[in-house]
């Protein structure tokens, strides 16, 4: 039943957006936009469907939709499909690659099956040279990583890191050893899972954010791999009032488009997509960086526990770096250090 529903929704997106490749709609961009006879309102020349996961993307993407429509004179319309209605982040990334969805906004972890080099964004936070919160990437590193995306039929429109991922819980956790045996709903990233497995946690995956209230009330999970913003928007702060303020990982997200769909646009509209996105992402990260968590108590680990965490994370760091070439790694370190 779920597969049939997913297929139906993808068909709906294709009908609404015209898919991702050039169509009769795209061909009209080279002449003039059609006009609606009955109202005189201009019909968009390009329509692109955007799939996204968490509610945290909703307001931000709505602003982007409005700005793109305005700055292209109504020629480009973005249609939003949120709440994982089109499937998981990984499924939506594959749909974008195949051309059955135009754009996806999701964590970079969801793209690593297609673009292995994107795993560089998943290096654990206990290695601060490689993991910086609230960073917007738009320089040399962004361009080099985008080459990896383009090789897979994708175009990277925007890339950022946000808040630290935390482990929230209903009881205070003060030592690393207390995580052993804890049942945690994780984000699903295989790199995150590798670290949590090494720390002895029990993982629960493929549970939607909407289902967490039931699982918490029923005692089926002890904690959540999450961010404060996710807890706040899902109304879960009261149920998970404690958080480990420990650099496990930093949230990283990307806005990715089907390459053929991107190249169907005139150059000026490509610039509008990327420039408006960069502007809005910058404002969003500035807002989030200034947000003071309310209603939660955060606990940090001592030096001994931090050293143990770093030892557990080192094999993951090395394995990820083996996936990227030296030029990409150096550009990443350079941009993280604030050097252009």
Layout of strands and helices, then pairs:
Elements: H1 2-17, H2 24-27, E1 46-52, H3 58-71, E2 76-81, H4 89-98, E3 103-107, H5 140-150, E4 154-169, E5 183-185, H6 190-198, E6 202-204, H7 212-217, E7 223-226, H8 228-233, E8 242-244, E9 249-258, H9 259-263, H10 267-290, E10 297-299, H11 303-321, H12 326-336
Parallel strand pairs: 1-2, 1-3, 5-6, 5-7, 8-10
Antiparallel strand pairs: 3-9, 4-7, 4-8, 4-9
Helix pairs in contact: 3-10, 5-12
Describe this structure in words.
40% of the residues lie in helices and 18% in strands. Strands 1, 2, 3, 4, 5, 6, 7, 8, 9 and 10 form a 10-stranded mixed sheet that branches. The protein has helices at 2-17, 24-27, 58-71, 89-98, 140-150, 190-198, 212-217, 228-233, 259-263, 267-290, 303-321, 326-336, and strands spanning 46-52, 76-81, 103-107, 154-169, 183-185, 202-204, 223-226, 242-244, 249-258, 297-299. The chain has 12 helices and 10 strands. The chain has 340 residues and is of the alpha/beta class. It has one domain: 3-Layer(aba) Sandwich (D-Maltodextrin-Binding Protein, domain 2).
What's the gist of this structure?
The protein has 340 residues and is an alpha/beta fold. Helices cover 40% and strands 18% of the residues. Strands 1, 2, 3, 4, 5, 6, 7, 8, 9 and 10 form a 10-stranded mixed sheet that branches.
């Amino acid at each position: 039943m779920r597969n049939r529903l997913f297929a139906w929704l993808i068909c709906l997106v294709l009908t609404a957006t015209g898919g991702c490749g050039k169509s009769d709609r795209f061909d009209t961009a080279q002449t003039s936009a059609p006009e609606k006879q009955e109202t005189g309102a201009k019909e968009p020349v390009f329509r692109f469907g955007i799939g996204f996961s968490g509610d945290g993307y909703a307001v931000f993407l709505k602003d982007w939709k409005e700005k793109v429509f305005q700055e292209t004179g109504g020629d480009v319309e973005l249609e939003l499909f949120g709440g994982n209605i089109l499937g998981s982040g990984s499924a939506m990334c594959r749909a974008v690659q195949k051309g059955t969805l135009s754009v996806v906004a999701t964590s970079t972890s969801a793209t690593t099956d297609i673009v292995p080099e994107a795993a560089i964004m998943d290096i654990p936070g206990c290695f601060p040279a490689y993991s910086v919160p609230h960073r917007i990437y738009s320089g040399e590193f962004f361009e080099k990583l985008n080459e990896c995306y383009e090789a897979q039929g994708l175009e990277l429109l925007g890339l950022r890191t946000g808040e630290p991922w935390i482990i929230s819980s209903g009881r205070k956790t003060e030592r690393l050893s207390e995580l052993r045996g804890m049942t945690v709903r994780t984000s699903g990233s295989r790199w995150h899972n590798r670290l949590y497995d090494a720390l002895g946690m029990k993982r629960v995956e493929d549970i939607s954010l909407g289902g967490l209230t039931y699982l918490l009330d029923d005692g089926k999970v002890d904690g959540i791999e999450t961010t404060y913003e996710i807890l706040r928007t899902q109304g879960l702060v009261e149920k998970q009032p404690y958080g480990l303020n420990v650099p496990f990982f930093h949230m990283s997200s990307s806005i990715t488009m089907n390459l053929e769909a991107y190249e169907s646009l005139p150059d000026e509209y490509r610039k509008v997509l990327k420039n408006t996105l960069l502007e809005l992402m910058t404002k969003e990260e500035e807002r989030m960086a200034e947000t003071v968590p309310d209603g939660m108590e955060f606990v940090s680990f001592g030096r001994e526990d931090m050293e143990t965490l770093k030892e557990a994370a080192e094999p993951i760091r090395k394995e990820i770096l083996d996936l990227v070439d030296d030029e990409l790694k150096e550009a990443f370190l350079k941009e993280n250090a604030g050097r252009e």
